[in-house]
Amino acid sequence: MLDDFLIRLTIVFVAEWVLIRFFAFPRDGDRDFAASAFLLGQTVFLVTFWLKGVTLSMGFAFGLFATFSILRYRTETLSPGQMTLLFLCIGIGLLDAAAPLAWPVVLALNVLLLALFAFSLTPWFLPPRLQCRVVVYDWPENTQPQHHAVLIRDLEARTGLAIERVEVESVDLLRQRAVLRVYHR
Fold first, then answer.
1. Hey, CA dihedral for 105, 85, 2, 98, is it positive or negative?
2. Do 74 and 28 share a structural domain?
3. Are 155 and 161 in contact (CB under 8 A)?
4. Is residue 126 part of a domain?
5. CA 90 → CA 101, 132, 144, distances in Å?
6. In a shared domain, residues 54 and 113
7. Residue 173: which domain range?
8. Tens-place pLDDT, residues 105-160
9. 20 and 102 belong to one structural domain
10. CA torsion angle for 45, 48, 53, 58 (degrees, to 10)?
């Protein structure tokens, strides 16, 4: 029993450390949140592992998840990325402690979860999000469809942005200006 505990503790420790150190912290940089998510996952693992011998169900483990979440995060607004990280830390702790599987299978599931998380952060999963700016443009004749390439080249030269697309909001021919919505990376 002690060997199984130490192996699973090592697996959950390394999996959550890799998740936070190499994926979450470089993107977010919130040390306090990273530390608390890591410790929450470890605590869920320890409590669930030592209580799994008691006749309790997986529902109890998710009840622990809810309790810990309410205690720590009831007043903070978390971003979707932070919520995902928190859920992954707790889920890895629950999986490693309560799954009636041999430790090599648990290790493989942890690697799979980390790989899925890493893949979800790549441009292969979703392309980078475009940013949008509203621009007041002084050559409304370039907003005509036949001058679209000229418009994009001119906007890129003036703004220094890699423009993906342009939408014309309004054109004021009297004042010789157009309001454009410019999408760029």
1. negative
2. yes
3. yes
4. no
5. 18, 36, 54
6. yes
7. 131-184
8. 888 988 998 888 888 877 787 777 777 888 888 887 877 888 888 878 888 888 88
9. yes
10. -120
